[in-house]
Structures are given as structure tokens and as C-alpha cells.
Design goal:
With 507 residues, the protein is an all-alpha fold. It has 34 helices and no strands. It has helices at 3-27, 31-39, 42-46, 55-71, 73-81, 85-94, 97-111, 115-123, 126-133, 139-153, 157-165, 168-176, 181-195, 199-207, 210-215, 223-237, 241-248, 265-279, 283-291, 294-304, 311-323, 325-333, 336-346, 350-364, 368-375, 379-388, 394-408, 414-423, 426-439, 444-452, 455-461, 469-478, 483-488, 493-503. Helix 13 runs parallel beside helix 16 (223-237) and helix 21 (311-323) packs across helix 22. The radius of gyration is 33 Å and the shape is elongated.
Length: 507
């Protein structure tokens, strides 16, 4: 065989390998092909190609493996069991930038599925190689490494701590400052994934100066970057008063309120999530957001959206109102109650309705004035209906009942209470009757109205156990009226009158 023929054989071999990995990489982009590829033992065929002498074959083999691992945890596990990860980690340190991006992609694809698979990536020494890749000149390599680190950190505190211990955080903060938007996004996302697990991890992110750099990007025109920035600031804020105060001290208010009108719904959702995480801590932090116009802005936001994106805004209003009478009144004055009443009626999801019920309870529980504002929005019958509906989740029933009781215990607006006399079960009814027993002795107009509306008649029909609190409240109400009026509206009185007529002998 001549030298030319030998070269042709090698050329043909290289061409075949190239065609094979390119075809597999292409096939792996379509879910319907995955099972066939898996059954054909494609993993074991790709593995030796990671060590191929031709760089493009190495890169394409890694890309194909990444796409397969990305598809499901079984394939990701096959990569771990096939002992492919150590080779990828080695290549991260030794190969060119194209291969590094592909190798980091495989590590990310494996780590994303579960804490166990992410731990397998850590155990093969990937963290050190990924952190070193954050210092590469090529922004694409940095982006791929940051993405893999974020996917490892997001699962739990232990994995997140491992990422921190590998020295990733200062380099991720540097990546946030790079000019490339895609790199900024992924670095901010990774910082968010690290900070979310514990106050200590969030503090580690803060100690590297992350807040100031994140705060500078809140008005960036790129929506995907803003999503990640607000997510990271939320994850930092949620853990403690001190961390929330550090975020607020970056002077992001009132500038962030402009983002509640952003065209991107996830930007708007993440802004309200940030506001929720800040307001939940103290009255002072809530007051700061109230002073910046945050309440009105969130109420407008709730009117412009539907579904799950409403949830953080609904809860934020509840947290603000929970702190004090004045803050609850700020929500009322800004027309928060009618908007929450709309959410309660419109939203089909039980967990959103449960949060809305909770927030309304926080607003109405302070004083009779607060309770009246909630009752006037016709919220009480809706809460009762949700509590009594057997289709409601247990959480919704509990929250609706608790909200009802806390509002009822302060409500002295009798017209709003009267419909509940007819529908409420005894455990709620006693709170309704209790309020009537408090108000009627001191209000002659209310006493007259209670008779003409049929309320007194309804109270006489209530069956209460002797000596019970409900019986005491009914007695207190009856004591507000002449005995013959009470008798007149008592069940069976008309029959008694008819009997007397029959027995009556004219003179």
C-alpha cells in the first residue's frame, strides 16, 4: 500500500468520525431520537472521541454528550457511571476555548438534574477547574463555567458552600462587571443560586461587594439581565433584617418601581418578590417602601396581571399591613382592598387565593375601621364560601377561616355581617353574633334596622347549647329588645297566637 493510500485511509477514518459525532450531536437536539441513541450505546461510542487527536471531533463529542445529559437524569447518570467526567475536568484545564465551553456544558447538563448528580460533578474535581475557567480571557468560557457553577450551587446549602469554598464568588462578581450581557446574566444568576440557601451564604456574596454592582444594573435595558439582578437581590434580602437593609441602602428605591411597568412579566414579578422580601422584616423597612410610593405601584401592578405573577405582590401587601395599624391603613387608602377582592374572585389557583385571604386578614384585623374597609368590599361572604367549599385545599380553608375570624372580631359594620347569620356554620356564627351583641346595646338605629331586616328573627332561630358563648351572645341581643318583640320573632310564636285565639272566649 502506497503512502498516498495510507493517507487516504486515515483521511477517510477522520471524515467518518467527524460525520458520526456531528450526526449524533444533531440527532441529540430532538427528544424523539434520545431513546434510540441510548439503546444503541451511543455513550460508550462517544467517550473515546473525547480523547480524539482532532480538536473539532473532541468538541462535537462533548457537545453531543451535553445534549444527551441535558435530556434526563438517566442519561446524566450514564455519563457519571461511564467515568466520562474526569476526562472532561482534565480537558477543562488543558484544551482550547471551544472544548472548554463544551466540557463545561456537559458538567452543567449533568449537575442540573439532582443534588446527587451535582455532587458527582463536585467529587470528580470539577469545581477547581470551573473556577479557573472564570479567569479565562474568552467571555464564552467564563459564561459556560459560571452557568455550571450556578447549576451546582442551586440544589442545596452544602453544594453552594462547596462552590464558595472553591473561590467562585469574587470571580462571579468580576464577571457581573464584564461588558458582555450574556455573561452578566449568568453570573448574576449564579450569585442568586448561591445566596438563596442561608444567611451565611448570602453574607458571603454581600462581602464581595455584589450588592453595589447588582444595584447599578436595575435599569439596564436588557430584560433577562434585570430578571437575574432582581432575583439575586431578593435572595439576599430574604434572610435577615441586616441583609435587607444593606440592599435598601444601595438606594434602589424608588428607581426599582419603574420596573413594575416593564414589558417583561418576570422582571415585574421579581421586583415585587424583592419588595415582599424587604417588607416582611420590619415596620421601618415597610414604611420606607410606602414612602417611596411602593404600595400604589404594586396595587396597579396587581390590576395589570393575572396568575402566579400576582402572588408576590399579594403577599407583599399582607406583610406591610401586618406590621401596624398605620401601614394597614396605607394599603386601604391606596385602594388595596378592592384589588385584593378582585384577586380573590378571579384567581382559580387555591394557593393564590389562600395568600389573598391571608393578606385581607392582615389588613382587617387591626381596628373596626380596618375591618369595615375589608367588609365593605364584600369580602366576608367570599371568605366564608371558600372556607366551606369542600373543593378548597386544606391550606385555603385554614387561611380563609383565620382571616374571617380576625376580621369579624373587629368588625362593627353590621350590614356586612348580617348575610353571614344565614350561611355561617356555628364555629364562625358565634363570632358574628358576638359582634351584634357588642354593637346593638349602644346603637338604637342599628337595633331598629336589625328587626326590620329580619336579623332578630334569624337570631331566634339559632340553636345554641345552654351555657355556651353563643347562647350568651344571643341573650345579650335579646336583652336589647322588649320581651314581647323577642317572643314575636321567636319560632312557633304564630302557632302560639293561633292557639290563644282558639281558646279565647269573647265576653
Amino acid at each position: 500500500m502506497s503512502q498516498r493510500q495510507v493517507l487516504q485511509v486515515f483521511e477517510q477514518y477522520q471524515k467518518s468520525r467527524t460525520q458520526f459525532v456531528q450526526t449524533v450531536a444533531e440527532l441529540a437536539t430532538r427528544p424523539q431520537n434520545i431513546e434510540t441513541l441510548q439503546n444503541a450505546g451511543v455513550m460508550s461510542l462517544l467517550r473515546p472521541l473525547l480523547l480524539d487527536v482532532v480538536p473539532t471531533i473532541q468538541q462535537t463529542a462533548a457537545l453531543a454528550l451535553g445534549r444527551l445529559a441535558n435530556y434526563n437524569d438517566d442519561l446524566a447518570e450514564a455519563i457519571v457511571k461511564g467515568d466520562i467526567l474526569p476526562q472532561l475536568v482534565y480537558s477543562l484545564a488543558e484544551q482550547n476555548r471551544f472544548y472548554k465551553k463544551a466540557a463545561a456544558f456537559v458538567l452543567r447538563a449533568v449537575a442540573r438534574h439532582s443534588p446527587e448528580l451535582a455532587q458527582a460533578v463536585v467529587d470528580c474535581g470539577a469545581l477547581e477547574a470551573l473556577v479557573i475557567s472564570l479567569e479565562e480571557f474568552d467571555p464564552g468560557v467564563k459564561e459556560s463555567a459560571a452557568w455550571a457553577l450556578g447549576y451546582i450551587a442551586r440544589h442545596n446549602g452544602e453544594l453552594s458552600q462547596a462552590v464558595v469554598d472553591a473561590g467562585a464568588v469574587p470571580l462571579l462578581v468580576l464577571c457581573v462587571q464584564e461588558p458582555e450581557i450574556a455573561l452578566k446574566r449568568i453570573a448574576a444568576s449564579a450569585l442568586s443560586d448561591i445566596a438563596k440557601h442561608s444567611p451565611e451564604l448570602a453574607q458571603t456574596v454581600v462581602d464581595t461587594g455584589a450588592i453595589a454592582h447588582l444595584a447599578q444594573m436595575i435599569l439596564n435595558p436588557d430584560a433577562k439581565l434585570k430578571r437575574q439582578v432582581f432575583s439575586a437581590l431578593s435572595q439576599i434580602s430574604k434572610h435577615s433584617v441586616d441583609l435587607a437593609e444593606l440592599v435598601v441602602e444601595a438606594e434602589i428605591f424608588p428607581a426599582v418601581l419603574a420596573c413594575l411597568r416593564d414589558p417583561d412579566e418576570y422582571v415585574r414579578k421579581n421586583v415585587t418578590t424583592l419588595m415582599r422580601e424587604i417588607t416582611k422584616h420590619t415596620p421601618e423597612l415597610s414604611q420606607l417602601i410606602v414612602n417611596s410610593g411602593g404600595i400604589a405601584a404594586v396595587i396597579d401592578y396587581l390590576g395589570d396581571c393575572k396568575g402566579a405573577v400576582r402572588l408576590p405582590g399579594i403577599m407583599m401587601l399582607g406583610y406591610v399591613a401586618a406590621h401596624s395599624e398605620n401601614l394597614a391603613m396605607a394599603v386601604i387608602v391606596s385602594k388595596g382592598v378592592p384589588q385584593l377582592a378582585i384577586c380573590l374572585s378571579e384567581e382559580p389557583e387555591d394557593h393564590i387565593r389562600a395568600a389573598t385571604a391571608w393578606s385581607l386578614g392582615q389588613i382587617g384585623r387591626h381596628t373596626p375601621e380596618h375591618a369595615r374597609a375589608v367588609a365593605a368590599a364584600n369580602v366576608l361572604p367570599k371568605l366564608l364560601a371558600l372556607y366551606m367549599d369542600t373543593q378548597s385545599s386544606e391550606d385555603l380553608q385554614v387561611k380563609a377561616k383565620k382571616a374571617l375570624k380576625s376580621i369579624l372580631q373587629k368588625c362593627t359594620h353590621l350590614p356586612a355581617l348580617e348575610p353571614l347569620l344565614y350561611d355561617a356554620p356555628s364555629n364562625i356564627l358565634k363570632h358574628v353574633v358576638c359582634q351584634f351583641s357588642k354593637v346593638l346595646p349602644h346603637d338604637s338605629k342599628a337595633r331598629r334596622l336589625f328587626v326590620t331586616s329580619g336579623g332578630l328573627k334569624k337570631v331566634q332561630e339559632i340553636k345554641a347549647d345552654t351555657g355556651s358563648a353563643l347562647q350568651e351572645y344571643i341573650t345579650s341581643i335579646n336583652n336589647c329588645y322588649p320581651e314581647e318583640i323577642v317572643r314575636y320573632y321567636s319560632p312557633g310564636y304564630s302557632e302560639t297566637l293561633l292557639e290563644r285565639i282558639e281558646k279565647y272566649q269573647p265576653v
